[in-house]
Specification:
Elements (H helix, E strand, L loop, with lengths): L1 H10 L3 H14 L4 H13 L3 H13 L9 H5 L2 H5 L6 H18 L5
Helix pairs in contact: 1-2, 1-7, 2-3, 3-4, 3-7
C-alpha cells in the first residue's frame, strides 16, 4: 500500500523518498482514493498544504461515505478498525505522528 511507504520512510527520516514513490503512482492510478488520502498526508508533511487540501478533496470525492470527513470518522472506518497492524502500539504511534498528523495539516478536522 502507498501509505506504508510514507510510514516506513518517515520512521527512517526519509519523507522525500516516500514522496517520490507516491507521485508516479498518482499519475498511473489517479482514481484510487487511498492514494489520494496518502498524498494528502504526504504533501501536508512536506509543507505543501494547498496541494494536500486538493488531494483530500479528491479522496473525499471518490468515496460514497464519510470516512474522510474527519480524523474521528477515519479511525472508525476500514483498515483502522480491522487491521491487526494498526493495533500494535509502535505502529499506532507512527500512524499518529505521520499519516494522521499530515491529514490534520491538510485540513481534515478532528470531529
Amino acid at each position: 500500500m502507498a501509505g506504508a511507504a510514507v510510514l516506513k520512510a518517515d520512521s527512517e527520516g526519509e519523507i522525500e523518498t516516500a514522496f517520490a514513490s507516491l507521485v508516479p503512482l498518482h499519475t498511473v492510478a489517479s482514481e484510487l482514493r487511498n492514494l489520494h488520502i496518502c498524498l494528502a498526508a504526504a504533501y501536508a508533511l512536506k509543507g505543501e498544504t494547498e496541494r494536500a487540501a486538493a488531494e483530500l478533496v479528491q479522496a473525499k470525492s471518490l468515496v460514497s461515505d464519510d470516512r474522510f470527513s474527519s480524523v474521528a470518522r477515519l479511525k472508525t472506518s476500514g483498515s483502522f478498525r480491522v487491521s491487526e497492524c494498526f493495533r500494535a502500539p509502535k505502529i499506532r504511534a507512527l500512524v499518529e505522528t505521520t499519516y494522521i498528523a499530515g491529514l490534520r495539516k491538510a485540513g481534515m478536522p478532528e470531529e
